[in-house]
Amino acid sequence: METSGFYSPRTDAFPAGLRVLVVDDDPTWLKILEKMLKKCSYEVTTSCLAREALDLLRERRDGFDIVISDVNMPDMDGFKLLEHVGLEMDLPVISQFAVINT
């Protein structure tokens, strides 16, 4: 859409088909994130355990473009998962924090 005399197409959108691994021990949040990402035409794989996710990443070395991970998980701290991904793979990781009001 042209405004003020010049047009610039949007170039900052992520590509369709982005391969995303989502890791969260909360099945409700896992499903919500999966649905939202699929609406963006992303290929989504989910895991409720960090160790399982790490195994997936190791088995499918070039199978993912990005990881979205919860920080507080029962089997492995999300920061530990981030450390493994950083040392073993060249993948961006988004860590999500849950804020709980008490």
TrEMBL record:
Q: Name one Pfam family in it.
A: Response_reg
Set out the biological process GO terms recorded for this chain's protein: cytokinin-activated signaling pathway; phosphorelay signal transduction system
The answer to whether keyword Calcium applies is: no
* Top-level division of the source organism's lineage: Eukaryota
Residue limits of the Response regulatory domain?
19-102
Which UniProt keywords are present, listed alphabetically?
A: Phosphoprotein, Transcription, Transcription regulation, Two-component regulatory system
Q: Which InterPro entries does this chain map to? A: ARR-like, CheY-like_superfamily, Sig_transdc_resp-reg_receiver
Q: Which residues carry this modification: 4-aspartylphosphate?
A: D70
Which PANTHER family did the record assign?
Answer: TWO-COMPONENT RESPONSE REGULATOR, TWO-COMPONENT RESPONSE REGULATOR ARR11
Q: What is the protein's name according to its record?
A: Response regulatory domain-containing protein
Q: Name the source organism.
A: Escallonia rubra
